[in-house]
């Protein structure tokens, strides 16, 4: 049976356009760390490098290389974890050149550290790209989070974050940091800004009388 994240993991990838509380387990990813404007050519190149690896994993059976536990799956969407450099945090206007990010694509459970490295090495031989040397394979467990679907331009995200933070106040939750997660459900090259769909997520904890 094919694993399709839009069907089997709706609660993680297809939330409603209102805040909700979720617990995100440990998942494995191909990741690239960087700093700078997401509208840059380097950022686009990094996305391409990640997708080349994700599709290489999916196509392994066609290369007569079927890993133990392999199952067919839909390639997962691009995700990003976003922070801001210390020197830019006090500025009133967002300086996109000061953004710090980790972009990543989740991998199925059967992908081990060994298999991930084999895939990276294989892609380096067939489609060499300098950014492949910056890719790491790692796991990430977000834990307790508030998330919601944001529809519209990335520049309008503060509007949704304000709604999410108000939800936290009403539900005795505290946002742990300004770092946040984004999951990109739309192809920005083919979608009008007002129709872009992005999952927004940040870590929280209970506080006050509700804290453990």
From TrEMBL:
<protein>
    <recommendedName>
        <fullName>GyrI-like small molecule binding domain-containing protein</fullName>
    </recommendedName>
</protein>
<dbReference type="InterPro" id="IPR008319">
    <property type="entry name" value="GyrI-like_CCH_Lin2189-like"/>
</dbReference>
<feature type="domain" description="GyrI-like small molecule binding">
    <location>
        <begin position="18"/>
        <end position="200"/>
    </location>
</feature>
<dbReference type="InterPro" id="IPR029442">
    <property type="entry name" value="GyrI-like"/>
</dbReference>
<dbReference type="InterPro" id="IPR011256">
    <property type="entry name" value="Reg_factor_effector_dom_sf"/>
</dbReference>
<dbReference type="Pfam" id="PF06445">
    <property type="entry name" value="GyrI-like"/>
</dbReference>
